[in-house]
Amino acid sequence: MKDSLYGLTLDRLAAWLEERGQKKSRASAVWEALYRRRVTSYEQMTEARPECVALLEDQYVIHTMTEHTRQESADGTVKYLFKLRDGNLIETVLMRHKFGLSVCVTTQVGCNIGCSFCASGLLAKSRDLSAGEIVEQIMNVQHDLDRAGQGERVTHIVVMGIGEPFDNYDNMADFIRIVKDPKGLAIGPRHITVSTSGLAGKIREFADSDLQVNLAVSLHAPNNELRTRIMKINRAIPIEKLMESIDYYLERTNRRLTIEYILLKDVNDRREHALELAELIGEKRRPLVNVNLIPYNPVDEHSQYQRSEQESIRAFYDALKKQGVSCSVRLEHGTDIDAACGQLRSKQIRASRDEAKAASV
Ligand code: SF4
């Protein structure tokens, strides 16, 4: 099967052409066609030399997925379900904010982290996505915007869809290099956020890397007992180890870090949890940390969890603020569609299984 052309960084594309007797500089024309003019076929790559196009066409494809389903919300959120060449389905979400358009991308088919509240984690990882498949999600959304003709552009990227991006580190890193390349999509590094469930070793690697984009860490609980209940990864990487890697990241990068905290009714949303969280963050980290409180979107499969009351969310927020912790409550998008991450995908997969079962009886 041919690889995705979107998976090549500009340097790698130039080297690939050079190895085949082409001038390295010809890569720029291909890059220009792909990311500036955003062509969708080789025939449209008129600025590139025909011999370059022929070589590329021989080994790479531009499209590796098709749109399977989409849901559009009244607030402009669009949830796409893309079908990969191997039949797997992945989710990508476009969200509209006052500050621009952001896209949330998926990095793996399924996820092995198994957070107990998550619709995506119900389906184990079957494979990693290639860098090209992650870039193509952005390009599909951008092509959709191009077709609408309003001149809208994807301005922000959040790597928070299905999967643990640090469990697919190399492809995630190439994806970031490609989308932030100033000669291509040129998405600003400060407009890109990668979210991890807390793989401590990879947080250090990320801190030492050239990527220089924002990091969000899913904490979801202020102590080990509670965190292990909510996220089984905490057994392998307890909070102390995670905080050490966060300290390393803050020292190395001096960049702000987001702590994600999903609020689950009567589980982790009490005032004492907020105070414990403020203490865990501590004075030293406080200037560089922002806590993002996420009201839970209930999913059928996790009936043990409910959404926190509005007063509890307010009280949690106030308690953190009072302790001098910078925090915000995540604005919700697409509440009239399958809003929780992975919900649309798991629904579709269940529906197909039910159909297959019904057909076999
Ligand atoms: S929340 Fe993220 S890391 Fe946890 S199971 Fe879901 S997709 Fe995986």
TrEMBL record:
SUPFAM superfamilies: Radical SAM enzymes. S-adenosyl-L-methionine binds at G163, E164, S195, S218, L219, H220, N297. It is found in: Cytoplasm. This is Probable dual-specificity RNA methyltransferase RlmN. Disulfide bonds join C104-C341. Its EC number is 2.1.1.192. It comes from Cohnella xylanilytica. Specifically methylates position 2 of adenine 2503 in 23S rRNA and position 2 of adenine 37 in tRNAs. GO terms for biological process: rRNA base methylation; tRNA methylation. It is an enzyme of class 2 (transferase). Belongs to the radical SAM superfamily. RlmN family. GO terms for cellular component: cytoplasm. The keyword Iron-sulfur applies. The active site is at E91 (proton acceptor), C341 (s-methylcysteine intermediate). InterPro entries: Aldolase_TIM, Methyltransferase_A, RNA_MTrfase_RlmN, rRNA_lsu_MTrfase_RlmN/Cfr, rSAM, rSAM_sf. [4Fe-4S] cluster binds at C111, C115, C118. Pfam families: Radical_SAM. Its cofactor is [4Fe-4S] cluster.
